[in-house]
Design goal:
There is one protein chain. It is built from nine helices and ten strands. The chain is an alpha/beta fold. The chain has a six-stranded mixed β-sheet, sandwiched between helices. The chain is globular, with a radius of gyration of 18 Å. α3 runs parallel beside α5 and α4 packs across α5. It has two domains: 171 residues, Rossmann fold; 67 residues, no CATH class. The protein is 37% helix and 26% strand.
């Protein structure tokens, strides 16, 4: 199976449904953009798919492995979580070298030293920061720190990479580098990428397909070219034109 499938997903807070996805399909090795107004449910969708938030209902088929998200325990979900890389908007750097920041998770997993060195070196080169391995992590710029956070999940060689507004706090120079790195990851890794972004031009440049979420529902989705040039729903048309939608 080469598709990630969601069905009947529902996330509720205090009895109120904030996200409802009847069906969504993500094909292997594509980059998907998730866009929509603030509070529409974009980040909630990623958190439910990364098992960081347990939904009230829903099933997820991860390339042939089907799980019931609402009843998944931490122990049973751990093998699935290890197939997923998640990068939040604000990265956290530990007070150590860049190499140690990227290697930390592998050490917790008991990976041997030779494999750690190889995996960390490869990940740092992929994010174009191989020269920073011995540098203290707290001396990095914001853009460099975000790429180190990305390297920290790439060392696990995940099948899925989820990014939640990864460039929201970056300047245009570092945004361009981050996007170039993501394209390289898509070309060199056997991976599917989902990125939540408020930057519509970024979604247009970077992705193969886009989803528009509004009021907790996927209102429209399709190829990026059609999404931006031939939007079907009035809500997406208004959103792309910069008009206020409620």
């Amino acid at each position: 199976m080469n598709k990630l499938k969601l069905s009947d997903l529902e996330v509720a807070y205090r009895g109120k449904t904030v996200l409802r996805v009847d069906k969504a399909v993500f094909e292997h090795r594509k980059i998907y953009g998730i866009v929509g107004p603030s509070g529409s449910g974009k980040s909630t969708l990623l958190r439910a798919m990364t098992l960081l938030e347990q939904p009230a209902a829903g099933r997820m088929d991860v390339f042939g492995t089907v799980v019931d998200l609402s009843s998944l325990t931490h122990a049973k979900g751990l093998p699935l979580q290890r197939r997923i890389g998640y990068v939040p908007q604000k990265p956290t750097m530990f007070d150590s070298t860049v190499f140690d920041n990227v290697a930390l998770g592998l050490r917790y997993r008991g990976t041997d030293r030779t494999a750690i060195r190889s995996l960390v070196t490869e990940a740092l080169e992929l994010v174009e920061l191989g020269h920073t391995a011995k540098q203290r992590a707290h001396t990095l710029s914001g853009g460099e720190a975000q790429r180190i956070a990305l390297a920290r999940v790439l060392v696990y060689q995940p099948d899925l990479l989820f990014l939640d507004e990864p460039t929201a706090n970056l300047d245009p120079y570092h945004i361009a580098i981050f996007e170039r790195v993501l394209k390289a990851i898509q070309q060199t890794r056997d991976i599917t990428i989902l990125i939540v972004t408020h930057n519509l031009q970024q979604a247009r440049r970077l992705t193969d397909e886009c989803l528009f979420i509004h009021k907790g529902r996927i209102v429209e989705n399709g190829s990026t070219e059609a999404f931006f040039t031939r939007p079907k729903s009035p809500e997406l048309q208004d959103f792309l034109c910069g008009r206020m939608i409620y």
